Amino acid sequence: MTEALARGWLVAWIVWGMVPIGALVLVMIHVLTGGRWGETLAPVLQPATALVPLAAIAFIGVAAGLDADYPWAAGTGAAKPDVLRLYLNPPLFLLRAGVTLLGWSMLAVLCLTGRCGRLAAGLGLSFYGLTISLVAVDWILSVEPGFNSSAFAAEIALHQILAALAFAALGSPADLDARSASDLANLMLAALLGVLYMALMAFIVAWYGDLPAKAGWYLKRGDGLWTGVLIAALLGGGVLPFAMLLFAGVRRSPTALRIVGCLILMGLTLHLCWIVLPAYGEGAGAAALCGLFCIVVLALLSVLYLHLLGRRPRSVGHA
């Protein structure tokens, strides 16, 4: 596996994995809360949740390219010796990822087979909250050790939830009634506001903290092409969808919501690329091209995987 392909697979896996993991979270939330929205979105969220075990299998590609993806795994980078010895080292990294992905896969199976009651869903969401706090840093921030943010895990969790909602909008049926469409639109609007708020607050806190490591991280991502990527993500995937969702006609229209969902997914993809790829310096361009190819491969594998399941997953039952 070449260096560019390994990095491209990492970016593609992070981007593609947002939807299945976000769908799992939404399904567990619905088990706890109930509501028409979960029943309306079930035809899209349940097949997406079924992809969580595939995401766990696809992580093998990330593990195979560990040295190319993460400088600390190759013995380079700015991480402190104690951090490398006690936390950022390949065995512990793979152990955390394995426990997380196995746990998420088991929760997905419980949800899809109707065995996830309210107790299991509550414990599952607690497990998700704990594990995403660890692996969001492992899988994404540690590509460039030295920068940290206490709100980063929450921001990534919101990314995943928003991605699942946007995917649900993209896959919504043409005959979706106005009331159900409005429910989905309101959920997307709330999640989108959460993502925009968390990203803005993280920037303000980091920038005005006047710490060299954090300022340097943002400066690298504000240079040249990356400024354009960020602007495109913010305007195309944030401001424009937000403005569209303010109109009642858009909120009640399945066709308009599919456009909004597509814009949000593209914006989230660009934002994650903006976070990860600048860490690779001159190799970012090759990694981006390989990442595009890998996203197509993962999409095709998803279709094949769902086809091999042989049937649509059953509806989630309440305890």
List keywords for this structure.
319 residues; mainly alpha; Formate dehydrogenase/DMSO reductase fold; 14 helices; globular
Overview in brief:
By secondary structure, the chain is mainly α. The protein has helices at 3-33, 36-49, 52-64, 66-69, 81-86, 90-112, 118-139, 152-170, 178-208, 212-220, 225-245, 248-251, 254-276, 284-309. The chain is built from 14 helices and no strands.
Structural commentary:
By secondary structure, the chain is mostly helical. It has a single domain, classed as Up-down Bundle (Formate dehydrogenase/DMSO reductase fold). 77% of the residues lie in helices and 0% in strands. The chain is built from 14 helices and no strands. The chain has helices spanning 3-33, 36-49, 52-64, 66-69, 81-86, 90-112, 118-139, 152-170, 178-208, 212-220, 225-245, 248-251, 254-276, 284-309. α1 runs antiparallel to α7 and α11 (225-245) runs antiparallel to α13. The termini are far apart. The model is unreliable at 313-319 (pLDDT under 50).
